[in-house]
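Milestone 3.1: sequence recovery, worked example.
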């Protein structure tokens, strides 16, 4: 690959059919006039499947399917700004996706604006495809009335956090208080700790 400018780049290897996003990425620093050698060890399998609504069984359009703990990047801006763009497959109107992945048990995360995040695992065979149908629940709604002890509403702009535990380190959902009221939607089933914080901490 001939490059005309020095800078930081990311090399991506794609499958022959172009589906599934980059199967391997490697960040390299290039200096003009020098030669850089890079070994790309490409993952051996793919994950194919569909994301559907658990209740209606209808396909979910626009859901992003990610491998946990991995980030694929197509480009790092060489102007010094450090900008990067992530590439992960997004489901189409039929809810289907294709994702390159190493063989072995892989952790998946599905992110959609209309549903809580879904997490699960899938076993990817060597030089083969793993097929999975992911059913995502819409989740529930949490209504919060935030007042002082005397019943006066707290100031507008404060935030309500739903946390997985009392350490406030894992915020699962949040909403802004308006007139002493906040509504949190698409909350995954479970038990949470409700935390009220100033809006500056968003």
């Amino acid at each position: 690959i001939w490059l005309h400018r020095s800078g930081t780049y990311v090399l991506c290897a794609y499958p022959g059919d172009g589906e599934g996003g980059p199967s391997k990425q490697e960040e390299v620093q290039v200096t003009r006039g020098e030669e850089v050698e890079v070994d790309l060890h490409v993952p051996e399998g793919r994950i194919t499947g569909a994301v559907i609504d658990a209740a209606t069984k209808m396909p979910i359009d626009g859901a992003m399917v990610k491998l946990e703990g991995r980030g694929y990047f197509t480009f790092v801006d060489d102007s010094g700004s450090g900008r990067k763009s992530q590439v992960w497959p997004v489901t189409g109107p039929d809810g289907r996706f294709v994702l390159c992945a190493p063989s072995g048990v892989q952790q998946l995360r599905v992110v959609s604006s209309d549903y809580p995040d879904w997490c699960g695992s899938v076993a990817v065979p060597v030089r083969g495809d793993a097929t999975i149908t992911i059913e995502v629940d819409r989740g529930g709604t949490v209504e919060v009335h935030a007042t002082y002890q005397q019943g006066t509403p707290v100031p507008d702009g404060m935030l309500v956090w739903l946390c997985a535990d009392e350490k406030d380190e894992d915020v699962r959902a949040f909403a802004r208080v308006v007139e002493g009221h906040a509504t949190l939607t698409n909350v995954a089933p479970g038990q949470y700790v409700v935390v009220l914080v100033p809006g500056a901490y968003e």
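The CA atoms of residues 3 and 124 lie 36 Å apart. Residues 72-86 have pLDDT under 50 and may be disordered.
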